[in-house]
Amino acid sequence: MVNAQLHGPLSAQVETLHERKLTCMDNLLSATDAVVYFKDERSRFLYVSAGWIANVAPGLTAEQVVGKTDFDFFRKEFAAATFEDEQRIMRSGEPVIAKLEQDDRTGEWYSSTKMPLRDGGGQVVGTFGIARNVTGLVEAEKALAYRALHDPVTGLANRTAFMDRLSQALLALERHPSGLAVLFVDLDHFKEINDSFGHDAGDQVLGEVGRRLLLLARSVDTVARLGGDEFVVLCTGLGDDDDVGLIADRIVRGLRIPYGDRGRDLVVTASVGVVVTDDPLAEPEKLVREADAAMYEAKKAGRDCYRADDSAPPNAPGTRNLRSELRAALAGSELFLVYQPLFALGQRSLLGVEALVRWNHPRRGVLLPNDFISFAEQHGSIADIGSFVLDEACRQLAAWRSRPSWPEAFTMAVNISARELSAPGLAERVAEVVRRHGINPARLCLEIPETALIVDVARVQQTLSALSNLGVRIALNDFGTGYSLVRLRRLNVDILKIDSSFVSQVNENPRDREIVAAVTAMSHALGITVVGGGIETTDQLDTLTALDCDSGQGFLFARPMSAEAVLALVGE
Ligand code: C2E
Ligand code: MG
Fold first, then answer.
1. Which residues contact residue 23 at a Cβ distance below 8 angstroms, ignoring those fewer than 6 apart?
2. SS3 content of the chain, % helix, strand, coil (to 5)
3. Hey, is 304 helix, strand or coil?
């Protein structure tokens, strides 16, 4: 530690210092803007530098300051705190290093170091200090800290801040049992606003959405923007009587009110997913994922609404059970595939099969996909199920193909969930599996659900284009709502499967018949093949054939069957 040493009695020292007008030190200190002072044992100034004058008392001379104390220049509290420090240094001889102090008259920040001033005998006879104006640094640090926890567009908390608050709120559930809810808010078609009105307008809408969310949520709730057009609201302290549905509904209705100036009103709606828990051990990331999955259900339900996470299907055991049972099913060999044949309608010839997953549940018997696929989508195990299905279907196709008289053109269709399609790496995974099993990619068809085209179109488009480049065919699984056909072509969709709900009504409902006729004609014009799904009667088959539908699937031809039964059907 550096201590200033003055030699001889202090009064003589001071005299000497003054006599020499501190020339040397003063010249040195004037060359910098350092705030330097020396004080006697009662905290009276013996010397102040030019930097001290400039920062503390501009217009005065050093001589005018000597003999005065901080109480003559600063507010009482600040001067008292400094006096305290200096008296402590006097008693202990211990310095105060780099203390951050704010001059409350000017708001400027200083990093201040205060040292004991010793005489030749080592006796503490006063103090001296040096302070640096660090206002710029402090402001920059504050700005950085703000930026680290806030979203720059809306000023709301950002993901980091939100996850931190969610973790804290979960911890608090241990001490004060109650409920908390995460509401995942995603704007509908926000990309179109950016595309049509520009990013500035988009940012304005995001800012307004943030302001509205703050008003629509309760004052204790945390509102954050996760990024893009995704917002989250954390509601804490929920009692049994609190209905989160009401908050979600208020948000949906409140965001729907038009934005912008009169004359160019813009309507933006939002889909909201809700998850509620009272479990302090719940994982924050998982909760947000579940709320996201529930939001996705709201999108599927037509957007502009909210959905709660009620992932357990009817009659299913509790969520926890199903989750661990599914894990066990994946680890063991409880999942298996059945195959439903696809026929050309004209010649009634077998074109290929569609792989459909089944779960041989140890207690409940064979479960159908509707009992567990959407659950798996929401609880993170869909990727594992998808990997199993793709691998097993390709393995089976390769095994069939190795038989001498197997029909070359026989195709295998595999269902891909919307989640899998929007997760990264699907095209790479497919390429790897196709290569490993040595199958012709043109014989593999991936069936994607229509809902997959609603969310994250850009990413889906990229994946579909990569898959198409591999040579894999893409079928739209449950075509029904009339998604623009031209757009489908641009998305590399080769096949359109007309939903069985249309097929079942094709003879009863003239509108359904017209739709099937129009869709088939337009699809053909665009080079898209049309498949009728769920054909159960010969009347339906006849109508679809008359409407020029290319191929069909349904109980009339064949139910889903084992791999051995497919062999028998092919005539092997
Ligand atoms: P999908 O892709 O539309 O598959 C056709 C579904 O309709 C199958 O039900 C099939 O058994 C049933 N079906 C076929 N013909 C008829 C018929 O004439 N009448 C009736 N009433 N039903 C018929 P399944 O196997 O229960 O599959 C339901 C859905 O689950 C599938 O619909 C598909 O979206 C999904 N799925 C099936 N396997 C998988 C899979 O491996 N992965 C993923 N992600 N989803 C799958
Ligand atoms: Mg399908």
1. none
2. 45, 25, 30
3. coil
Note if the pTM is more than 0.70.
no
Query: Residue type for 506, please?
Result: V
- Identify the nearest ligand to the CA of 535 by its number: 1
Distances (CA, A) of 338 to 40, 341, 416: 94, 10, 15
The H or E element spanning position 175 is helix 159-175
Q: What is the mean pLDDT of residues 194-206?
A: 88
Residue 156 corresponds to which amino acid? L
pLDDT tens-digit readout, 445-478: 999 987 777 656 778 889 999 999 999 999 998 7
Ligand nearest to the Cα of 419, by number: 1
Ligand 1 centre to CA of 356 (Å) is 6
Instruction: Identify the bridge partners of residue 274 per DSSP, sorted by sequence position.
Output: 183, 308
555 lines ligand 1 (CB under 6 A): yes
Phi, psi for 184 (deg, rounded to 5): -100, 120
- Ligand lying closest to the C-alpha of residue 500: 1
| Dist. CA 117–CA 43, nearest whole Å | 11
Cβ-defined contacts of 5-9 (< 8 Å, 24+): 5/118, 5/120, 6/117, 6/118, 6/119, 6/120, 6/125, 7/119, 7/120, 8/119, 8/120, 9/119
Question: 342 CA distance to ligand 2 centroid (A)?
Answer: 11
Nearest alpha carbon, ligand 1 atom 10: 560
CB distance 533 to ligand 1 below 6 Å: yes
Cα-Cα-Cα-Cα dihedral sign, residues 513, 517, 518, 524: positive
Distance from the CA of 411 to the center of ligand 2, in angstroms? Answer: 13
Alpha helix (H) residue ranges in 61-153: 62-65, 76-92, 135-149
